Amino acid sequence: MTNLAKRNIDRESEGSGAGFPAVRRAAVAMLCAGALAGAFALTARAQPSRTVADGVYTAGQAARGAEVYRAQCVTCHGEALEGSVGPPLAGDGFLSVWSALPVVELVDKIHNTMPLQATAPLSRQESIDLTAYILEGGGFPAGPAELADAALADIALPTVATASAAAAGGDLSVAPIANLAQLMRAIAFPASNIVFNVQIKDPADDVPPPTAARSFDFVEWGSTVYPGWEAIDLAALAIAESAPLFLVPGRRCENGRPVPVDRADWREYTEAVVEAGRVAYRASQSRSVDAVIEATDQLNEACASCHEVYRDVGAEGRGVGADRCRQEP
Length: 329
Ligand code: HEC
Ligand code: HEC
Description:
With about 325 residues, this protein is mostly helical. It folds into 2 domains: about 5-45 and about 175-310, no CATH class; about 50-155, Cytochrome Bc1 Complex, Chain D, domain 2, CATH 1.10.760.10. About 50% of the residues lie in helices and about 0% in strands. It is built from 12 helices and 2 strands; from the N terminus they run ααβαααααβααααα. Strands 1-2 form a two-stranded parallel sheet. Helix 10 (about 230-240) packs antiparallel against helix 11 (about 265-285). The radius of gyration is 22 Å and the shape is globular. The chain binds heme C (HEC) (2 copies).
């Protein structure tokens, strides 16, 4: 059992989770995280050998894609891929999202999630043709052979540097309001449990009952507004985007010690959570339960590695961890 799982179960036996079914489920999910971890071997991915600059689609294929685009995408992504309701599908901003990723991920994104709220899903061929059209719109050259499903993992999108948050004026300093434990309980804990729950429940089966048939539940409430796979997407994003809050100077731990934000290993542990959140998001976008389960392994590891050093030290139990957050592990 992982420390995280054990901790959550301990909390429950203390009674703080009693009476909240969602919390109990979460503990089960955390427990599964440890139990299932060994079952999924990490598969090393081969590096793509070609890039989209190598003429990987044909002009005819892009023309087929353009037809589907005009019928199903243009209202949200614009006449010239410039974006309107949805984001642009060409240009640096777009390419930085997909920097160095294999084309298969872009095709999967289109196939699995677009058009947004579609009643009928796109076919695989349509998704690939649309990708050819998007590549053409991005100025990547056509070539002699069509883009085909089997080759997608072997072709990389270009590497584009992302503007760092600081360069974009994102280094706004905010005074912390929560202590570290509250921050963890508020965001990292529920968001991780949503991702871990994929181990025991396929998000595709998550069809909320009609509003009238539900009694109100604060925990369930948000998840019925953005249910199913989107809830997993959002939880993974919450993990990735909120982890840098662990680094905000001036925050204190529950016991009043300053969070050791200046320590190099603290920063590395935090970066590992950002990365695990990013991996979980990509896995969720693939709409594959197995991929998300594999990602939970990395997430569990990222949380637990820091906890071993900075949290689960000294006396156990809520409010008793006088040794927590110490500067000199
Ligand atoms: C109802 C509006 C809507 C329609 C129709 C729609 N999209 Fe989108 N699309 C969005 C929104 C909103 C996002 C951003 C959220 C997300 O990434 O899921 C998005 C994101 C994307 C992305 C990822 C962009 C990025 O920056 O990462 C791609 C690729 C995409 N759409 C392709 C398509 C294609 C191809 C079609 C037509 C088959 C389509 N979309 C139809 C609204 C739409
Ligand atoms: C950089 C180190 C670090 C990382 C990474 C980290 N934690 Fe924590 N976590 C802590 C510390 C230290 C505490 C104790 C905070 C305190 O005492 O105020 C804590 C406390 C918690 C608590 C509260 C436990 C209690 O006593 O009630 C939860 C829940 C939690 N973390 C979940 C997570 C999850 C889930 C992740 C991964 C997504 C994570 N944490 C990642 C350091 C970390």
